[in-house]
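Reminder to self: keep the SMILES exactly as supplied, no canonicalising. Ligand is adenosine-5'-triphosphate.
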Amino acid sequence: MSNDDELLRIEGIRKTFPGVVALDGVDFDLRRGEVHVLLGENGAGKSTLIKMLSGAYRPDGGRILAGGEEVRIHSAQDSAQLGIATIYQEFNLVPDLTVAENIFLGRQPRRLGMIDRKRMEADAAVLLERVGVNVSPRARVRELGIARLQMVEIAKALSLDARVLIMDEPTAVLTSEEVEKLFSIVRQLRADGVGVVFITHHLEEIAALGDRVTVIRDGKSVGQVPASTPEDELVRLMVGRSIEQQYPRERADTGAALLSVEGLTRDGVFHDISFEVRAGEVVGIAGLVGAGRTEVVRAVFGADPYDHGAVKVGGSALRGHDVNAAMTAGIGLVPEDRKGQGLVLDQSVEENLGLVTMRAATHGGLVDLKGQRVAAARIAEQLGVRMAGLGQQVRTLSGGNQQKVVIGKWLLADTNVLILDEPTRGIDVGAKVEIYQLINELTAAGAAVLMISSDLPEVLGMSDRVLVMAQGRIAGELSAEQATQDSVMALAVSTPTQATTAVEGHRGH
Ligand SMILES: Nc1ncnc2c1ncn2[C@@H]1O[C@H](COP(=O)(O)OP(=O)(O)OP(=O)(O)O)[C@@H](O)[C@H]1O
Ligand SMILES: [Mg+2]
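C-alpha cells returned for the bound complex:
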C-alpha cells in the first residue's frame, strides 16, 4: 500500500459528554477502495466516532488526518469539503419537502436565479433508479415508509460523489433484496476507489461486504481484524465473551387464546386476517415488506381503523380504532418506527419507561413515583441500557439503547398481549439474547407474544408458530417444526387467493 491510499486516519480520539466518556482513545484508518466495518455493542461509540468525521461533534482530544495531513472538521461543510458523505443512523430528511428537494437540499440546480425543478427532479430520478427504489422524486418524504426513507438517504449520499462514504447501520431497515442492491452499489463505489465506513449489527454482512473490521468496546478500539474473521470470534471481540445460543427460546405451556383476530379487513390494505395467539405462545409474522404486516398489527392495537372483522382479547370484543381500549385490555405494541411512535425524545429514560405504567399506577389519582423508579431501574438493568443514569435524555442515548427503552416501557406495563414489530432492529447480538430471554419470561408468566420480524433466523429461532403474509393476506401458517427459510419464503412470495394490491406505502397516522 502506498501512502496515497490512505484517505483518513484517526489517532487517539476522545469525546466526553456529561456523565459519559463516549470515546476514550480510538484509532482508525480508512484506505481508498475498501469497506471498513466498525463493530461494537450498543453504546460502544460507533456513531459518535463517525460524527467526528461528519462535523456533527468536535473531538476533545486526538487527531484526524486526511491524506496524511492533520485536519479540523468543525462543520458539515468542512466534512463535505474533504469529500466525506455521511448517512446517519437517525434519518436526516425534512418530512415536508419532496424527495428531490431533500436530495439536493442547499444545492438545488438553478436556472436564471430560480431553482430548476425540472432538472432537479430529473437528476433525482436518475439517482433513485441507481439505488433501485421505486419512488417519485415529487413524493413528500413524510409519506414514505422507513425502508424507502433509507434508500432516499443513500441516493442523497451518492449525489455528493464523495471520496469517503460513511454509512451508519444502513441495512437495519432494509429487506434482503434491498440489502443486495445496496451491496452491489457499495462494491461498485469500492471499485471506483471510494473508501466506505460501514456500521452494522448483522454479522453475516461483514464477510459479505467488508475488507477490514475495527472493533470498539466501551469507547476504545480493541482490535483490527480482517472481515473474513469467523463470526463467533467477532462476537467475542465485541462483547468480551462468547454467546452460546443465539435464539434461546424456551417453550411455555400454552393456555386459552388471549388474542383472537377474526376476518379483519381494511379495504385495499389487508383482507380476511384470522388468527389466535394463546397464553404462553410466541407467534411470528413473516413476509416481505409491503405484505401488510405492520398495517395488521396497527389495526389490532387500535392505532389504525379497519372495515370488517373483530379483535378479541380474552374473549371480549375490543372497540376498533381505540388505542386506549386496547391498552386497557392489556395489549402493548412496540412499533417499528421507534423515533416516530415509540419515544418522547426530550424526556428522560425514566419518564419514557414510565409512559405506559403511569396510567396503570394512577389508582385514585396517586402515582407511585418511587415504585416506578425502582421498576424502571430494574428493567433498564435487565436490558443493559447503557446510560449515564435514569435521568439521561433519551435523545442522547445510542440508537440501540433507545430501542431497548421502547421495549422496556411495554415490559413494565404488565402487558398480556405484547406485539413486537421488528423488535431487535439495531440491537447488538448480546442485547438480542437478553430481549429473547425477557420474551421467554413473559410467556412463562402466561403472556401472549406476537412478533413481526424481517430477520428470518429470528422468526425461525423464536416463534412457536409462524404466520406468513403475502399481498395483504395470510398465505399460510407453519408450526415451528415446519418453518424453514425455504418454506417461509415460498409462502411469502406466493399469491394468496383473491389477492389484493396497493398495500405498499399505505399507512395511517
Ligand atoms: N449528545 C450526547 N449527549 C450525551 N451522551 C451522548 C450523546 N451522544 C452520545 N452519547 C453517549 O455516548 C455513548 C456512545 O453512543 P453512540 O451513539 O456512539 O453508540 P453506538 O456505538 O453508535 O451504539 P448503537 O449500536 O446503539 O447505535 C452512549 O453512552 C451515548 O449515550
Ligand atoms: Mg449508533
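Points to follow up:
Residues 17, 20, 22, 40, 42-48, 89, 386, 396-401, 428 surround adenosine-5'-triphosphate (ligand 1) (CB under 6 Å).
The first strand starts at residue 6 and ends at 17.
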